[in-house]
Structures are given as structure tokens and as C-alpha cells.
Amino acid sequence: MSGLIFGGRRMRGRAIGSTILALTLAIASCSVQSGEAEYFGKTAPPEGQVLRYVSGAEPESLDPQMSTGQPEARLYMALYEGLVEYHPVTLEPIPAIAERWEVSADSTEFTFYLRRNARWSNGEPITAQDFVYTFRRGLSPELASRAAYLAYYIKYAQAYNEGGVFVRDPRTGEFLLKRDVPPSGDESAPSAEGATVIEGGAPDTPFHRFIRSPSRLVLPGTEQERARLFAANPKLKSFVAGKEFVPVRAEDIGVEAVDDYTLRITLDQPAPFFVKLLAHQLFRVVPRKAIERYGEAWTKPGNIITSGPFILQSHRPYSEIVMVRNPYYWDAANVKLDKLIFYPIEDMTTMMNLYKAGYIDATYNHTVPTGWVDFVRRLKDYMDAPEASISYVMINTTRPPMNDIRVRRAFSLAIDRQALAKYLRVVKPLTAFSPEGIFPNYPQPKGEDFNPELARKLLAAAGYRDAAGNYDPSKFPVSEVEYVYNTSDRNKEVAEFLQAQWKQNLGLTIPIRNMEWKTFLDYRAKLNYKGFARGAWVSDYMDPNTFLSLFYTRGGDNGTGWWDPKYMRLLDQANRTLDPQRRYELLAKAEKYLLDACPIIPLATYATNWLKKPYVKGMYPNPMTLHPWKFVYIEHDPAKWDRGMPQMAEVVR
After folding, report:
1. Cβ-based neighbour number of residue 141 at 10 Å
2. What's the confidence (pLDDT) of residue 555?
3. Which of 218, 224, 391, 583 has the lowest tally of Cβ within 10 angstroms?
4. DSSP letter at 322?
5. Closest Cα to residue 604, out of 490, 488, 500?
6. Domain residue spans in the chain?
7. Are 307 and 285 in contact (CB under 8 A)?
8. How high is the mean pLDDT of the chain?
9. Dmax of the chain from CA atoms?
10. How far apart are CA 73 and CA 80, in angstroms?
11. Which ranges of 213-347 does DSSP label H, i.e. alpha helix?
12. What pTM was computed for the model?
């Protein structure tokens, strides 16, 4: 959400549902035509309030805490809701199940007051206890959510998710405190202990006094990990000698139901952006009753209970996902769509033909084929706006030859990003890891740009040279490197471009390989690839930290194997800084440190590049191309249609 990975897989012929297959065959001869038409294809709205939308790949899961992909996020925003929702234009947080909230002066304590009329799709009330369950579940080691790191700002959340232990003196029953640990010269950022609380807010409780007390010392949960830590800090080993280790429990994390309609969250350090983060799918409330009853089958039609404006009516894999309006949704009176039909298609030509013929009403981002952009972008239903998303290459830094920074730098320097931008037409070249021109006043650092001569020198210095010391491509172990991507036309174009660049500038033919979206995500996360893998990220919230925090932990969506405690401390230092401009400066310092380590190769900042019929209202080309479906509707009066880009200044109720 999220952050979110965008992209997916091509629709396979044998798996296409009868509906899509029939439509595709009916219009197979459609193609881009010249002419003076205002729109790309037909503009006859469907009857009633039905939206037909191409959502991307077949979803990895309908469980909002299991996937970080954008194809899934589009579905989650219809089925589930959290404390806050994204504003459809600005993407700033707006009230959702929480009607209001309070924040402490130092941004370490957040109290949310829930609506009394918020209900599940079975009519039962949604309470603060449901959110406590959701947060604990999302962080549980058993669930192994790739997005769990997003909640690490919550006190003891990381410790619980990573299986950490507290340290207790068996004689006194007292827990050892983090502040008392002998220094090793490698300390993490200080915690929020002693920070401010909300004056006059929710009442104090025993749990609140516990969670606001000085932070307990947390150690790794396994003997092997503790041994490595003790080797680096012998004083710590002496400090905990004779003590017992107590596993951190779900009940220890800083999330508390003060009462049925008051939720209090306590962080380990200041995070001024935390409310923005809570719109992400990881924090959207999920139904304990259905999960405990049906297990992994809880998301199937007939089992699923939802919290958002729509409920799941049917799901035919690789064909269609149908949702209908949730009558128990707290704001159901203002939800205009009666039905949402999502088509999991990724073949660009298929979706463009369906759109042109009037069988679908809108597409997701980056869906106009490269060869069609110059024609389509002048039409009034083309959505062209800045997007907080980037494309990059992940590098598996745990395997040779890519564990050598000289080799990683060489492959980055051998890519002409200006040529890539000209080829794709809808991107800007990028050498940083934050998107270009999205965050005002952010002093974005720049990485190394195209320099094939230096690239070859670096490879020679890394040992791939002849007897005279000159670079020799025949010495490079090409068999140990490949580029893996998830199947789609656009991803294939980029893969072939990179392959050609490395052949031209390094004399190396790097194999490229595609795989299905769901398989690709797990394959990449577990570092099963050798060499390179496609990477792309859309903001989870409007802040540079949503990109930089990908490498805060070894797991999750990091996908590179690179992790550095110094980088983690730099992010911590930035995020506990309350002055906005100073915080930006410190984030930029962390970003420069990441770029210098080169676990990734930045490629491009994307623009939105999608189509929407003029009668589709309430759907905006926002910087994340995520749409709160409760605001979307079909306008049957042509006088009120969007003739061009929708008015981004429209006021949302």
C-alpha cells in the first residue's frame, strides 16, 4: 500500500474466464487508430452504479496482512477499512473507523476514538479490541507478514515479530532495562521512555503505566544470535549472566483497548508520520471470528467478513472478482456504487482493447503500452500526473559475484537511464531511491549515473581482467547471474533493455527470466534469485521514509540481503527529529548511505499513465494511484462528466 509493489502477471489463455475470453475475442481486431476523437473508444456508461475495473495480477491473497502488492491493495481498499483512510486526491489520512484522534506533543502516543456505528459486514460492532487483535496478528511471527516492519515504530513490536526476549533477574523478578546496558559503541537510537503523554486524554491504566515505563532490554530469541551479540559486546554478556530470558508476547506491544471505542498506541520513538502510515492494509481491521473459524480459508466467499464499504460476492481466479455494497458499513448511505467488478488482467493489449470497446471503465497505473503512449496521451481520458513510485533493480548481495560492491556499482554505471526514459516515454531517469520531484523541500541525494568506462574499470579491479590488467568479460561468471521479473509486457521491455545495456557496455549477456506474480514475490523475498530481480515501489504514505524504510530490516520487502545497523540508526535519528526540514536532511543522509552501499540500482520515477472513462467520477490520478472506492461513482449525466483530468481541487465530504 505498500508501500506497495506494483505489477503482476500476464493473463494466461487457458486460465481466462469465459467472460474475459469472450470479450477479448469479440474485439480482437481493435487497434490504435488515428483521428480526432476526444476519448479512447466508447463512452457509454454501464447501467446503474457498476464499475468494471482492471486490477492487475491475480491476487496473492485477499488477506490484507499477507500481501504488499498493489494489485492486492486495490482490492483491500474495497473490502477493509482501518482507523484512517487515504484522501482520494491528496492521500493524506482522513477519518475512517476512527472519527477523531489525539497525538502527544512528541508524536509517541496516539489515541483514536472509534465510531459507535462501525460494523462488520455481518452486522456485529467493530471495537477497539478488534484493532488490538489485528495489530497483534499482523506482527505475529507465525503469520510472517512481509509488511510487519511497518509497525516496528510501536513499542516492542519489532521484538515480538522477531522472536525477541526480555531479560529478568530470577531473584528479584525485575526486568533489565535498555538504558542500563553497558555501551558497546553500536547503540540503537534512544527509545521514547519519559516522553510526553496526551494531557486530558484517555484515562491512565496499568498497561499504560507499563508501556510508558523505561524500555526493557530486548535480546535475540535464539542462543546463536545472542552468541554473536555477546561476541561483539562482552560487557553485555557479563551484564545478563545468571538471568533468565522471557519471550516477548503479543500482549506486550504498545497497542491497548482502553475501552470498546478507544484505542491507544504507544511508540518506541517519535514518528510524526505515523497516522499517515495507518491507512496501509497491514492496519486495516480483520475479523477474528472468521479467521479462527476458517483458518486460511477465511477469505473465501461465504466465509469472509469485511470491514469496508464492500463485501465479496464471488471470486473466480484469473477471471473476475465481484464485490457488492456492504449494507452495514458505517457510511453506507454515501457509497454510490452498488457493484465493483475487478478483472485480474495484465496483458496491456487485452485491457486496452476491452477499454476501447467499452467493456471496462478504468485501468490501473502503467497500463498504456509504450508504442501507444504518444497517441493516447493527448486524449481526454488519459490520466497523466506525478506518481510517488519508482522502478529499480534489486541485487542479491549475499551471493558472489554480487556480494562485491565494485561489481554492483559496475552494473549500475552501465545503464543509460536517459535512454530508458526516452524508450518508456512516461518515466523520469532516477539515480536516487526516492521519487523525483514528489516531496517538496526534500534535499534528495543523487547516485552515480551512466559511466560505462568506470564500470569496466571496477570489474577489472574486482578480478575480471586479463594478464595485462584490462577488463575481460570472459572472466565474469555469467552463469551465476540472471535478471528475474514478474510477467508483464512493460516488465519484459525493461528486462530486455537492461540486458541490451549490459551486453553493449560490459560485453555480458545476462539471462532474463520471468515468473508468475505470486511465485515471484516469495522467490524474491527469500533471496532465491541470483544476481538481479525487478523492484518497484509505490508509497505507502506520502513521506520519503516509505521508501527508505524498506531496508530498515533484513526481511520483509527488503529482498536484497543488505542490512546495516548504521543505516538503521540514521533512519531512527531522522524520525525522532520533530523539526520537519531537519528531519528531511537526516533522511537524505540515510538515503545517500544506502546509495553508496549499492544494494539496489535505481532506474526511474513513474508517472500515472492510465485511462478512465469520463463518466467515472471520484477517481483521481493521485500520487499512489490508489482509490478509496467509497468516493467513486458512475455519472450518467454527460454534462457532469470529466472532460480531461478531473478537478483535483474538488472537496471530498
Report:
1. 13
2. 85
3. 224
4. E
5. 490
6. 13-91+284-370+626-634, 100-278, 386-607
7. yes
8. 91
9. 85
10. 10
11. 223-232, 234-239, 274-277, 288-294
12. 0.84
Residue linked to cell 520515477:
605
- For residue 72, which phi and psi values (nearest 5 degrees)? -75, -40
Contact 263, 256 (CB under 8 A): yes
Residue 339 has which C-alpha cell? 457493484
Q: For the domain with range 100-278, which CATH number is right: 3.90.76.10, 3.40.190.10, 2.70.98.10, 2.60.40.10? A: 3.90.76.10
3-class state of residue 109 by DSSP? strand
Mean pLDDT of 291-306: 98
pLDDT tens for residues 436-493? 989 999 999 999 999 999 999 999 999 999 999 999 999 999 999 999 999 988 899 9
The closest alpha carbon to 280, from 440, 70, 60, belongs to 70
pLDDT tens per residue across span 525-536 = 999 999 999 999
Q: Which three cell numbers stand for residue 177?
A: 532495562
What stretch of H or E contains 590?
helix 580-597
Which residue matches cell numbers 534528495? Answer: 444
Find the radius of gyration of the CA atoms of the chain.
25
Degrees, nearest 5: CA angle 50-56-57:
125
CATH code, residues 13-91+284-370+626-634: 3.40.190.10
Among 198-212, 310-324, 371-385, the range of highest mean pLDDT: 310-324
User: Residue 560 carries which DSSP code?
Assistant: S
Give DSSP secondary structure letters for 180-191: GSPP-S------
Residue 458 contacts by C-beta under 8 Å, 6 or more apart in sequence? 406, 407, 409, 410, 413
Statement: 386-607 belongs to CATH 3.10.105.10: yes
Q: Which residue has the cell 493524506?
A: 92
629 near 331, Cβ under 8 Å? no
